[in-house]
Amino acid sequence: MANCDSNKNINKTFVIEPLELTAGTPTITACTGIYTSKIIACSGDTSIEIYSGLTFNGYTLVNDTLSAVTVDASTIMSGGTNILEIIDASDTFVTGSTYDTNSGVLTISRNDGVDLTPSGFTSVINHTVSGSSTKSIAQNDMYLIWDDFTINSGSTVNNNGRLVVVNGDFNNFGSYSGSGSLELITTNLEYILNHGNETNGNLIFYTQSPSGWASGDSISDISAATGNVLVTKEWVELATSVDNNDFVTGATFTNNQLNITLNNGTSVETTIDNLSGLTVDGNVLINGDVNIIGSATTINSEQVLIKDNIITLNSNVTGSTTPILNSGFEVLRGSGDTKSILWLENTDLWSVDDDLSVSGYVSGTTYYGDGSNLTGIGDTFVTGGTYSGSTIILNRSDNNSVSVTGITSDNIANANLTFDGTHTADIDGYGWQLKDSTGANRILLDIQQGFGSTHGIGYGGAAIANQHTFYNIGGTNQLCSFSNLNGLKLTGDNGDYLNFGSAGFVLQVKPSTAYGAIIGVYPDIVLRTKHSSQGVIFDTNNYVSFKKNTVQHSLIDSSSRWILRGSAVVGSEKISLQDDTLIKGSDNSASTSGFKFTDVNNNSLLDIRNNGATTFSATVNANAFVGDGSGLTNLPSGPNTFVTGGTYSGSTIILNRNDGNSVDVTGITSSSIYTADGTLTGDRILSLSSNDLTFNGTGLFKISNGSKSVYPNWNVHSAFNIDNGNGTVWTLYNANASSTFNANEFGIGVGSSIPFRIFNNTSVALGGVGKSSLDTNYSVQTNGNTLIGGNIDAKSGTNLLSFDFANYSKIKIGTSTSQWWFVNSNAGNSSTFDDNDLYLWDSTNSRKVVRFNANGSTELLNKVDLSTTTDGFLMPRLTTAQMNAISSPDTDLLVFNTDLDCVMRYNGTAWTTFDSPKYIVRSGGTNTPYSNFKTAVDDAPAGAVLEVHTSEVIDVGMPSTYWDWTKDLTIQTNGHDVIMTNLSRIQIAAASNLNTLNIIGGGTFSSSHNQVFTIYRNLTINSDGATNIVSTATNGILFQPISNVAGTTFTVNNVKSVGVYYSFTRNLNLQHYTTLNNCHVDLTNSTTGASIINYKRITANNCTFKHTGGRITYPQNSAFPTVIEDEAFIFNNCTTVGNYGRCMLRLNNCSITTITTTNSGIYQVTLEANNTSFRNINTGSPSNLQGFAITASSELVILKNCTINSDWGGVYLAGVSSVINGCIIKSGNSWGVFRYNSGANISNFLTIKNSTIESGNYRGVGTSYGNLGKQFDISNTTIITSGTSHTCLHMNTGTHARFDNLKLKNLATPANILNRADLLTENPQINTLDNLGNIVLA
Fold first, then answer.
1. CB 742: neighbour CB atoms within 10 A?
2. Can you tell me the distance from the alpha carbon of 937 to that of 946, in angstroms, rounded to the nearest whole number?
3. What is the pLDDT of residues 435-445, one digit of tens each?
4. Which band of pLDDT confidence, cut at 50, 70 and 90, is reported for residue 367?
5. Between the CA of residue 347 and those of 340, 357, 374, what are the distances in Å?
6. Among 494, 706, 810, 890, which is most buried by a count of CB atoms within 10 Å?
7. Which of 636, 611, 632 is nearest to 621 (CA)?
8. How far out from the chain centre does Cα 914 lie?
9. Given this model, what pLDDT does residue 1220 score?
10. Are 501 and 488 a contacting pair, CB within 8 Å?
11. How far, in Å, CA of 922 to CA of 919, rounded?
12. How far apart are the first and last CA of the chain?
């Protein structure tokens, strides 16, 4: 039974066939996990026996004992006395049952003396239903009958469930009825073969509804029925046949010599000068996949058989690739036209010889028509027909006809129709209606095809043009309609409807009642309600927005503030009106027309109302109103005064105030401010704010103080004159073009002299440079040669700053006796300085100090002495990317690398670390360099990355002390080697916080101690498959998990370990689980040890192990009766090269290669193998009982769907019962399967079924020992030998087996299939040997 560890929730029923049948008592033995909610024993005197390993609610039951903590007493039903102590006195349970075959009554007895008779239990069905009895099978029930089943005359079987007949015939001479199924099953392969090459009939499985059976039907009637499942003798022989041809079992190629080993033990050798071509005469058998890489593959054979039901073309076109080339098949026909079936990418159609293109399903047997377009199809098809009476005559394309009889009516409405595909009915302009058969003759479906666009479909009523309509049961009211005019319309009672169509969206709810409502959209939004008290309510938890043509007009925001003509409030107001507003009263009444503002206490702040005339009355709490006061009579009195009116006469303005007083403003000499003179009696301030004060006209605006004045002038230029009163007037010019100025110049002048001017927007002219002398090449120009030519000297005492242009440009700085120069040499002017370079020159000592090269570099030409004691030296700081981007760096160029936190030097070919940080710890943006690996590991914070930038042998200095690693860490080797010596071991203690350790980056990570990692806690080690993690000690162990805490796990991912040491992982503690994922372990050159040594479960997924000098697994020191889940080696999808020692081993989908001499590849291993291939390479010449691929001395071996290819022996099994199921075993010069059992009549035996076992030059299956009793149970198996003096089956006197559907072949001597004739007579189950070599049951 399949292992179901990954999902223990199984809702299925499994039948476990007996592995042993002794004295009529079947015993079920299961060696793998069974997960099910119920295990039921078969009827009769049977039992279910479960040995050690049975678990209830997590508690394991051993030695057939039960305890109160393992069983819920309310679920136990048994008469056993050994569980009475766990059952409460008030509990009841079943103690037995009896069934009366005459009365059909089932009686169930309980422990309290009460007998129960279940209701609904009628009877069981015997092999023969006789007399006038009636047997019934209820729905969901199934009854199983082994051998023939007969219904005698006068008897009735009413089957509404499942009636299953196994290995027998069905004979009905009575009455058979019901809606259930009758199923015939044949399991006997010989029975099928002896029935000949059946072309109809079902000898494996058949099911048929009872309506197809009548009295007198038998197996021949069933065989002739339609819908059967065909299994022929020919098919079975093909499926079970074994190719007798020789085939290749191996090959070697050395020095252009190709040696091919055949299955018959011979070999063929040939010389190949060029491996680009290979020719093989004879048959070739390849046990594996074939990958052909080339531009063409040619198969010159008359018959090509492909097992796969799908042939894939364009397999390289995957993912997002868009195909552009056509694909398909071509048939070359010599001188005839090439025929093809192609998929056309440009049309997405299939094309047959460019004459037929299809996009759907096409079958040559389903065409109907006159055939004018189908001349290329070899099948016959209907071309026409006639109908008369109860017969339809169909004319075919081959001029023959077919009659269809039994037509009882010409009305399709009276016929049952079954559609096996998609069909089209053309009503050709007419209608099609489906009506009920009642007197009302109501329309159920009405399809009308008019002309143009007037089509309609009605469901439950008449069709309407351009509309799909659903009606109510009465067929008059429309419930739903679809039309191109109104879209979707849903209609209910009282005129309710929902409409999506040309009228927009309309929802109308009970418009005929007082509480109806309508919501309509198109062309305007309409909200209408007839509710007497509710009106229209908008209620939302968010905001309400009103827009027109996307323009925001009104908004109630999420804080319930109402904003009119805006999108946000101005301040904190609750109502914000933000645009032109007109408030219109409803009438002319002063009491109702107007508006009023109040405070929170309802006190009036502003009240404006119409008084019926052209004026208005207002109440305002303010003090800033100015007017004639006629309309402000209601303003409050108080300390505030304001102007209420005024008069002007002569030179006086009289202003009247609200307090009855007046104010005179005198001195007015003119009624116009522009023609009046005045005198300020005090300071005045004019605040323009953001406004302009402009004086227009051609006159002057002048500010004077006696003879001093400031005034503008606009005659030619925009000018501003400043007169000091002493006859000198300076003028600021913004010039227009004139004889003195260019347009847009700015100048400062006095009289006709312009000593300062700004021209060309950027240049300055000094010293009275005239208009015609301005030079735009200079930013500053003087009226002379100071800046155009000549030197400039600036002195202060003996200090000197000089600009000197003699011979070359230079700046002199210093004193009259000591000078420093900045020199830019011109071409050919100096032999001291290079052209175009800038120098710092010590003129006093005539030496160059610094040169700034034109290429951008700087050279210090003398000693540089940095003598500061309070600061440092900053060099260029670059990231790694910026450093690597330097084009052609100079040799010995130095930079500071900010990524690595170190100084880097370019040595002429590569960047190297200048200050040698061997190790860098990166954590949280901080990079810390180290020169010592141990210190870097100890100081690294949790989760840090330790980068290695050098390869070195590291003396850890802890020869007898454990080195504790306590924090999560990633070691990035960057391709360097970390080789640790003088170290006891690395310890991950139970109290450590190290959960994940990553070792990546390539190179080698190793330790010379015999234990590299000792692990006391949960830990995951990750690598990248490129870093070689090893022990360099020949007796070394790389990983040793030894936690004594239950449930502790150790996981290793993507670790590569190639070396010469003892063991990859060793666990001597029964509490530490180990999981290995995607690991590659190569200990090929190790002469001892084992890749894996474990006392607790270890699971390896997708791993590779090579350990030819030692073993893959280390002996666990004792034999195990079965594979215990918690203590087993479990390999999934793994590849191993090496032998196995004693252990519990489960192999799933693995490839196992062993290398033997006189030993065995897998020795003393309790083994479960599923879908696994074994290859045993034998390099010696052992005896016939040595050199096996698998040898078990007292261990359980279960092989399912495996292949074993051994140069010497196949499988050697002794002791406990074992199983070989669905396997192919090929051995060389020894047994295919050998059974060792030295004790007489030992009850354990070997089960072989559904397998093929072939021995190249020795015996197939058997044992050399006699008087052992039954030792084999062999069924549905083929055994082949090629030994001339050897047999397929070999058993000495007194040792025999049970056989079923066994096929034996001796390819060398056909008669030698049994070592003794009386082998058949010793087993009472064996009757005869047929002419095919099959040993069959009696």
1. 14
2. 7
3. 776 656 677 67
4. very low
5. 17, 9, 21
6. 810
7. 636
8. 46
9. 96
10. yes
11. 10
12. 29
d(CA 1204, CA 1171): 11
The residue type found at 470 is F
Sequence-separated (6 or more) residues with CB below 8 Å from residue 1134: 1100, 1101, 1102, 1103, 1104, 1105, 1147, 1150, 1151
Count Cβ atoms below 10 Å from residue 886 Cβ, excluding itself: 14
3-class secondary-structure state, position 595: strand
Q: Are 654 and 643 in contact (CB under 8 A)?
A: no
Express as a percent the part of the chain with pLDDT over 90: 19
Angstrom distance (rounded) from CA 1189 to CA 1199: 13
Hey, what amino acid is at 948?
Answer: V
In the three-class reduction of DSSP (H, G, I as helix; E, B as strand; rest coil), residue 1166 is classed as: strand
Decide if 717 contacts 735 (C-beta within 8 A): yes
| CA distance linking residue 968 with residue 1238, whole number of Å | 58
pLDDT of res. 99: 67
Query: In terms of Cα–Cα distance, which of 1239, 1227, 1192 is closest to 1213?
Result: 1192
634-647 CB burial, b ≥16 within 10 A, e <16: ebeeeeeebbbebe
Cβ pair 1301, 190 in contact under 8 A = yes
Nearest to 660 by CA among 686, 642, 679: 642
CA distances from 762 to 718, 745, 775, 999, 1305 (A): 20, 10, 12, 66, 112
Average pLDDT over residues 292-313: 79
Residue 448 CB neighbours (<10 A): 19
Question: What pLDDT does residue 1326 have?
Answer: 42
Separation between Cα atoms, residue 629 and residue 644, nearest integer Å: 5
Please, what's the b/e burial string for 1064-1084 (b: 16 or more CB within 10 A of its CB; e: otherwise)? bbbbebebbbbbbbbbbbbbe
Q: Which residue, chain included where needed, has tokens 């347009």?
A: 743
Q: In which residue are the tokens 């007489």 written?
A: 1240
Residue 68 DSSP SS3: coil
CB neighbourhood size of 179 (10 A): 12
Token code pair at residue 1292: 């000495």
Strands (E), 740-790: 746-750, 753-759, 763-766, 780-782
- At 935 the three-state DSSP class reads helix
* Distances 371 to 17, 367, 393, 421, 1056 between C-alpha atoms, Å: 58, 8, 17, 21, 70
Q: Which residue shows structure tokens 């053309």? A: 426
Q: Where are the beta strands (DSSP E) in 557-651?
A: 562-564, 575-577, 594-598, 604-610, 616-620, 643-649
CA 821 to mean position of chain CA atoms: 72
Q: 973: exposed, middle or buried (C-beta count within 10 Å: 0-12, 13-18, 19+)?
A: buried
Look up tokens 């200048």; give the residue.
914
Q: Is 1277 exposed, middle or buried (0-12, 13-18, 19+ CB in 10 A)?
A: buried
CA pseudo-torsion sign 844, 850, 853, 856 = negative
Where would I find the H helices in 558-699? Answer: none
SS3 440: coil
Among 968, 1017, 1010, residue whose Cα is nearest residue 988? 1017
Asked whether the predicted pLDDT for residue 1190 surpasses 90, the reply is yes
Whole-number Å distance between alpha carbons of 104 and 274: 83
Dig out the tokens for 28 from the structure: 């079920």
1054-1093 per-position pLDDT tens digit: 999 999 999 999 987 767 889 999 999 999 988 889 999 8
> What pLDDT sits at residue 201?
34
Give yes or no for a contact between 444 and 436, defined as CB atoms under 8 angstroms apart: yes
Q: Read off the pTM.
A: 0.42
Query: What type of residue is 682?
Result: G
Rounded Cα gap, residues 1247 and 1298, in angstroms: 9
- Cβ contact 1238:1195 at 8 Å: no
DSSP string, 1255-1292: ESSS--EE-S--S-EEEEEEEEEEEEE--TT--SEE--
